[in-house]
């Protein structure tokens, strides 16, 4: 008996240890479903009998004029295009034309609300004063993340709300990557360690992050020795480096994601109009909101009087981000402001500052903030700052904030790398709409996540939050709207074939409840990691262009490539670059106008393509070609083209365009005669010396 007991205990311990170790190994190395790695949901187009190519047939959204006609009809105006153009008088009100919801603001939250409401069978309109993602939604850090730093706070401060925030964000991160795999990707992020004691501390933290993600995660975090860390990230400073931890988060193309949300909402029946400003809110005899007056800013750009009209809706949602209080004051002039705006500055550096497929985080900068250093669209993004600011439409990054970011970068990059101010290709400031709860006991304290509030007259405000949780915010806002405004959701019948094929029934799961966690966005159905090869083989576009198109438009890259001009060269066969430095081509400009409601040159250089965010001076040089293509599509006269030039150059100031370039004329740019001898960039390179073993300038 004693012998059995002596054998049983060690055997039990050994079995337990093996089971625990095996469980940990399985969790770490179990098979995972990597978003975007699966075959396309919709098969790529093929060749029919006789070798004829069969391109996909994608559904089209209504034109902007048709959308405006629908808006006018809701307010009692005759809404056909003919009547719209003739300016006929109002007709009698039709109850069926009134919208269930009118959403003001088409950033991530507003566009997400429109898609959620439309896929629940509601009649919804969304209007935007500027363009989709023209504000905060295009100026993010480009991460889709749960928030490692929030998890650290949750543990140290025993804050359950912080924990819930991280858990929710990790769940939403997975939905994000599933519904738009072409616009998002998993990104390993390195956390350098300069003290050995930090290794177990951060290892435990990243492992907790992995465990919280659970099935929503993809790869587990891991430790790198000093030599392996330097091999993965050669730019790191070797001094005091003892190793590094690597964890995984998501990255995305924020403004293209926002545009895709808006276009998907439009396909599902939402009325979506940009450059339409709300000038006032309308109330009924009981003091309840029943609509809004708007004006078309595009007509003003064309030198005409802005068309003003009324939109009727049963409920109005304010999703205007930093401009939330402006709409709230239209509802109630004396209402207390709830937005506490904070400036977040980012800079863009050349791609050689970071590896192509690994980011870096510094969790403790000189003043206690967190800074990210991330590869994005072939360049490197560094940021961000966090400081109180005033609200403006296109804020400009301050020189002191840019210098602070550069200074922090120097702390962890090798001293061999000369971090220069002239290497900053673009710099921008985004305004975070941090909010205070007007119903809280302490109305000055900021809410941790987002806020949904309904005023006495029925204005539903959804504010705060972050990109990663836009879908959850939209779901909660629509739930509240359905309850408060007594709306009736219903299954979506005759859903569009978003995939371009009848093989997939996107409407099958739309039963009137929220299904946006599985509604694939425009471009997602036919996307796969090898789609770019099909594009090259059919259209003869360059490899980097084909990869860019499929990763920006998904299966709609077929349409973009078809809209691109023939080059009359042996190769590439199609696609004229709008900038020689980047893979953006002319077909993207035409696609933006015809299929994505682009109305200004800034819409194209900043939000449909990302050229302004990648390189402000390259965007300036591309402007003449962009304006000319848009002029052909939208029938602009010379006056409108001049307006576009001035407006676009003024916008590029907010992207970090040097002051010496703000007076540039179109003729100077087209002739290549921009004077930059007074710029920092001019002195950065050996520019004019003759080719010799040692240039003349270096011998001095």
Strand and helix layout:
Layout (H helix, E strand, L loop, with lengths): L1 H28 L34 H11 L6 H6 L12 E6 L3 H11 L5 E4 L15 E2 L3 H9 L3 H20 L4 E10 L4 H16 L8 E4 H7 L10 E10 L1 H14 L3 E3 L2 E8 L5 E8 H5 L6 E11 L5 H8 L7 E11 L9 E4 L8 E6 L2 E5 L3 E2 L10 H14 L13 E10 L14 E5 L4 E6 L5 H15 L46 H9 L3 H11 L3 H6 L23 H10 L5 H8 L2 H4 L1 H19 L3 H16 L12 H6 L24 H4 L1
Please provide a brief summary of the model.
The chain is α+β, with helices and mostly antiparallel strands and 700 residues long.
Instruction: Please compute the radius of gyration using only Cα atoms.
Output: 27 Å
Number of helices: 23
* Whole-number mean pLDDT: 89
Largest sheet: 10 strands, mixed
**How far apart lie the N and C ends?**
92 Å
* Outline: globular
Amount of helix: 25-40%
Give the number of DSSP strands: 18
Strand pairing plus helix content: what structural class?
Answer: alpha+beta
Strand percent estimate = 15-25%
**Poorly predicted ranges (pLDDT <50, ≥5 residues)?**
79-90
